[in-house]
């Protein structure tokens, strides 16, 4: 039996800080993305890494 150390509970998302609603869509903010710490490659509207990745692709 393999046991892994317990993982901390993720902090609850706060509307207006971590996300907002745009019609039926939940849109993550730049603040949320920075807390998460990595790009998910989904083309998110507020991705703080999108501009950096675009510049790297052009090279």
Descriptive report:
With 59 residues, the chain is α+β, with helices and mostly antiparallel strands. The protein starts with 18 loop residues before the first strand and ends with a helix. It has helices spanning 30-36, 50-58, and strands spanning 19-22, 25-28. Helix content is 27%, strand content 14%. It contains two helices and two strands, in the order ββαα. Strands 1-2 form a two-stranded antiparallel sheet. Strand 1 and strand 2 form a beta hairpin.
- Counting helices, strands and paired strands, the structural category is alpha+beta
User: Segments where pLDDT lies below 50 for 5+ residues?
Assistant: none
> What are the secondary-structure elements, in order, as H or E?
EEHH
User: What percent of residues are in strands?
Assistant: 5-15%
What is the overall shape?
extended
Number of strands: 2
Largest sheet geometry: 2 strands, antiparallel
Tally the helices. 2
The helicity comes to 25-40%
Estimate the mean pLDDT confidence.
Answer: 85
- The Cα radius of gyration reads 15 Å
Q: Order of strands in the sheet with the most strands?
A: 1-2
**Distance linking N and C termini:** 48 Å
Short account of what is shown:
The chain has 59 residues and is of the alpha+beta class.
